[in-house]
Design a protein that fits this description.
Blueprint (H helix, E strand, L loop, with lengths): L4 E17 L2 E14 L4 E6 L12 H17 L9 H5 L6 H19 L3 H5 L5 E3 L1 E4 L5 H14 L3 E5 L6 H11 L5 E4 L9 H4 L10 E2 L7 H7 L7 E3 L6 H9 L5 E4 L1 H4 L2 H13 L4 E3 L6 H11 L31 E3 L12 H6 L1 E7 L3
Parallel strand pairs: 5-6, 6-7, 7-8, 8-9, 9-10, 10-11
Antiparallel strand pairs: 1-2, 1-13, 2-3, 4-12
Length: 369
């Protein structure tokens, strides 16, 4: 298909509560949205890069610049563009996976809307709804955290993930177990906050019946995770380390993880995320869908991805009201701990353009040179 123009739009969407991890605190989402226009349809994409390069080297200002100056000229140069060809067209530009993923997502959305095919059907979804977990940030006190967890469990979430860091790990986890019991599906996410020297301390978590420990060491220390797995009995899950299907294959091969968190933005797009899923299924490694505080645009795509057969653990595909008082699409609402997979063409959601305009900081429309 032909790209007529591409809109790069920046919005600010307040979070209902501050979200603290080992690398910082977020109070709002500064989001880069992409809208592509073709002769047959428009498509939306969402860049999951943060305001600062803390989770990864990418950040939203850089994503917008690289999209404008380096990625879009290459897409416009492709005469007959298909979503399956976006990654190849952008391959000469090194890195910038989140910016690339946003563009591919928008092109794929437009392509599928024109074809009358849903995102889930195209990716290979096998479920009509997906189990939902919730990610709980770091709190000033344990009682505050326990009250937050209680609220999420009352809402119906099927799994709780606690963010941890040195000094906030064993004690809050024990408090959760004491209050909510051993039947609660519970896991932790360190966001690279530890080193291999912390292995004896992390082994203390083995008595707490956790589903997994997510990304305890630095993203480039895949061999270190393999060594840690020899000391810690709790399954190791990789997140930041998995930047492609190939990196997933390598991590599994050396024993660095027994579970993988797949984030489409981190691996360069939903088509590469599907390839990473296929690698894990072939090797019998369970996967789950991570979240990046997405709006309804990114959430729709994540729910579709999480409906693939290898996603056997509840993901971070929380309901819209977990993060926002008002979403930019129709809200995703939890029903019996699950979210429904959209079935309408493309992403299957409609963007609230009036509200979008009200929270927009800037818009630039880019056409062929």
């Amino acid at each position: 298909m032909e790209l007529i123009d591409v809109e790069l739009r920046r919005i600010r969407l307040p979070l209902v509560t501050p979200f603290r991890t080992s690398f910082g605190v977020e109070t709002e989402r500064d989001v880069l949205l992409v809208r592509v226009t073709t002769p047959d349809a428009q498509g939306w994409g969402e860049c999951v890069a943060g305001s600062e390069p803390l989770y990864s080297s990418e950040h939203v200002d850089g994503a917008q610049l690289v999209a404008r100056e380096h990625l879009l000229p290459r897409l416009f140069a492709v005469g007959d563009l298909a979503a399956a060809g976006v990654a190849g067209a952008l391959a000469p530009v090194k890195g910038h996976q989140m910016a690339k993923a946003a563009l591919e997502m928008a092109v794929l959305d437009a392509e599928l809307r024109a074809a009358g095919v849903s995102f889930g059907a195209h990716l290979g979804a096998v479920r009509e709804a997906v189990d939902c977990g919730v990610s709980v940030g770091i709190f000033p006190t344990i009682p505050e955290m326990l009250d937050q967890v209680a609220g999420y469990l009352a809402a119906g979430y099927k799994r709780v993930k606690l963010k941890i860091e040195p000094g906030w790990d064993v004690a809050p986890l024990r408090a959760v177990r004491e209050r909510f019991g051993d039947d609660l599906l519970l896991q932790v996410d360190a966001n690279t906050a530890y080193t291999l020297a912390d292995a004896p301390h992390l082994a203390l978590l083995d008595d707490l019946g956790l589903l997994l420990i997510e990304q305890p060491l630095a993203e480039d220390d895949i061999p270190g995770h393999a060594e840690l797995a020899k000391v810690v009995k709790t399954p190791i899950c990789l997140d930041e380390s998995i930047v492609s299907a190939r990196s997933a294959e390598y991590a599994i091969a050396i024993g660095a993880c027994s579970i993988i968190n797949i984030k489409a933005g981190r691996v360069g797009g939903y088509l590469e995320a599907r390839r990473a899923h296929d690698v894990c299924v072939e090797r019998r490694v369970p996967v789950w869908c991570g979240g990046m505080l997405e709006t309804g645009i990114g959430r729709a795509a994540n729910v579709a991805l999480a409906a693939l057969p290898g996603f056997t653990l509840p993901g971070d595909t929380s309901a819209s009201d977990r993060y926002f008082d008002r979403d930019i699409t129709e809200p995703f609402v939890l029903h019996e701990g699950m979210l429904s997979v959209p079935t309408a063409p493309g992403l299957g959601v409609a963007v609230d353009l009036e509200y979008l305009d009200a929270i927009t900081d800037s818009v630039e429309v880019i056409g062929p040179a």
